[in-house]
Amino acid sequence: MIRPIVCYGAPVLRRKAEPVDMADPNLPALIADLWETMRGADGVGLAAPQIGVSKQVFVVDARPLQKPDEPPFQGVFINPEILWRSEEVFEYEEGCLSIPGIREKVFRPAQIQLRYLDENGELHEDLFSGIVGRIVQHEYDHLLGRLFIDYLPALRRQLLRSKLQRIQRGLVETHYPVIHAV
Predict the structure, then answer these.
(1) What is the Cα–Cα distance from 167 to 28, expressed in whole angstroms?
(2) Could you say which of 36, 81, 122, 139 is catalytic?
(3) Assuming Cys at both sites, which of 26, 86, 146, 159 could form a disulfide with 111, CB separation 3.0 to 4.6 Å?
(4) Using CA atoms in the order 77, 32, 94, 167, what is the torsion angle rounded to 10 degrees?
(5) Residue 70 annotated among the catalytic residues of the structure
(6) Each residue of 100-159: pLDDT tens digit?
């Protein structure tokens, strides 16, 4: 089921999400809703807090942004934990379905090591880099109550203030269903 995406200003986007109980009978439906909602909004990643569910789960489908020579990547990440971040960083213009209409260049580690469970409860510990690593870090941040705009210099955030207020008030149109904070 496609769920509305929670927009900037909603408290759920700023709270640390709760761990997922793998025995939760609602988990498969939540994961299915994340996939369907993300695809319906033409996204490449979506975290549960973005649909109003404060749980540590997100989905990634990096294929639309991957280079043709890269192996296509899709995945479900449950109760993830970043174990290591490279000192090397790279800049990339990010956007967010919860902050429609704003795209900004953000520096992030070039590579991370992540421990997580997949939808079958299998434990993984993988290295992620490139666009996949970027998307994973962006979605992981949602589970901690962080948004990509938090990485911007204070002056840049100040310049975006009126745009963010417009999003919060529901004055920005999207092609997907949303819930506004006010």
Answers:
(1) 31
(2) 139
(3) 86
(4) -130
(5) no
(6) 999 999 999 999 999 999 999 999 999 999 999 999 999 999 999 999 999 999 999 999
